[in-house]
Amino acid sequence: MALLEIEGLHVEVEGKEILKGIDLVIEPGEVHAIMGPNGSGKSTLSYVLSGREGYEVTAGSIRFDGHDLLEMEADERAVAGIFLAFQYPVELPGVSGMTFLKEAVNARRKAAGEGDIDAMAFLKLVRAKAKGLGITDEMLKRAVNVGFSGGEKKRNEILHMAVLEPKLCVLDETDSGLDIDALKVVSDGVNALRDPARSMLVITHYQRLLNHIEPDKVHVLARGRIRRTGGKELALELEQKGYADFVEAA
């Protein structure tokens, strides 16, 4: 059974149709990349999957792990195993990063019928995951993303992903604003999470991220629809030629 099945998805934002019939199937363990020009609907797709308000599905269906995703609230989707890494991670002043992450872990455990995680076991788990991402104890003590650089915010999101171990990781232009060193650290963190039971949807504008996170399939999204699907060679072609042909054809 496919982990994610999207059929004929149409989505409006403030009365304007953004997605105009998306069809996409992601099997367990697959990494799919979606590329496309600005305004093509890439981020809209990620927000619809995560359950963000303001995005109205007017037609089509989404099934996740055998369930009707559109019937689930945003928190239910997160507990079920969907994780969205934002293009611009938000700051939460006054909310301890460790407290925030522990609450998320316990929400997942509660849904699985398990008790809260032991405090020492949680600290050991987070420190082990943080070490490989270059996240210090001092960073762990801060409020969520407050005072972090762009690269630190992205590394912090990958830490959350590593600790929560979701079934579907949606990375919305997570390479945005990263220098080469930060991009490698983030990519290594993502690659460490690749698993036969875990799928990833990598949304990016540029091919450079796919040098580090090698996808099984690449899709071109333009004018609200997937216009072409191929392997990693398609990403290289887009880097050379750009999106003009797809925009004009659409």
From TrEMBL:
GO terms for molecular function: ATP binding; ATP hydrolysis activity. SUPFAM superfamilies: P-loop containing nucleoside triphosphate hydrolases (SSF52540). Transmembrane segments: none annotated. PROSITE patterns: ABC_TRANSPORTER_2. It comes from the Bacteria. Residues 4-248 form the ABC transporter domain. SMART domains: AAA. InterPro entries: AAA+_ATPase, ABC_transporter-like_ATP-bd, FeS-cluster_ATPase_SufC, P-loop_NTPase. Keywords: ATP-binding, Nucleotide-binding. It holds the Pfam family ABC_tran. Belongs to the ABC transporter superfamily. Ycf16 family. This is ABC transporter ATP-binding protein.
